[in-house]
Amino acid sequence: MSDTETFEVMKSDAEWREQLSQGQYHVLRKRGTESPGWSPLNPEHRDGTYACAGCGLPLFTSDTKYDSHSGWPSFFAPLDDAVGTTTDTTHGMTRTEVHCRRCGGHLGHVFTDGPKPTGLRYCMNGVALAFTPK
């Protein structure tokens, strides 16, 4: 994802700063990372949907959430057409970054050490997500 890429939901930096909390802005718009173990979504076990905190697009369901013991909310699959990915080469490593396909907000990274059936671990920043119980 480049800073010049366009998305369905586009806002100025000032608009994002006004809409989002400081933590949400840091993660969603500046590709930051929240501290592990911090998110109140880690122990969330109710049925429901996890949406982008920036634009409200549904991203994951509770059916795909699991405890990866990583310190961040983790899922083994996103909803169809919910996320995009790009190669992230920051911090001296190569990872696959995950972003909201509608607003481009940074959500976290996906790794290949997850459970069946996908073998993937979508390791998401809880501050980038909004949970709605069923």
Description:
Helix content is 10%, strand content 30%. It has one domain: Peptide methionine sulfoxide reductase (Metal Binding Protein, Guanine Nucleotide Exchange Factor, Chain A, Beta Complex), CATH 2.170.150.20. The mean pLDDT is 95. The chain is mainly beta. The longest helix has 7 residues. The relative contact order is 0.25. The chain has two helices and nine strands, in the order H-H-E-E-E-E-E-E-E-E-E. Strands 3-4-8-7-6-5 form a six-stranded antiparallel beta sheet, with no helix packed on it. A three-stranded antiparallel beta sheet has the order 2-1-9, with no helix packed on it. It is globular.
Record the strand order, biggest sheet. Answer: 3-4-8-7-6-5
Distance between the termini: 32 Å
The name of the CATH superfamily reads: Peptide methionine sulfoxide reductase
Can you give the helix content as a percent range?
10-25%
Number of distinct helices: 2
As a percent range, the share of strand residues is: 25-35%
How do the strands and helices of this protein lay out in sequence?
Layout: H1 13-19, H2 22-28, E1 48-52, E2 58-61, E3 65-66, E4 74-75, E5 83-88, E6 95-100, E7 106-111, E8 121-124, E9 129-133
Antiparallel strand pairs: 1-2, 1-9, 3-4, 4-8, 5-6, 6-7, 7-8
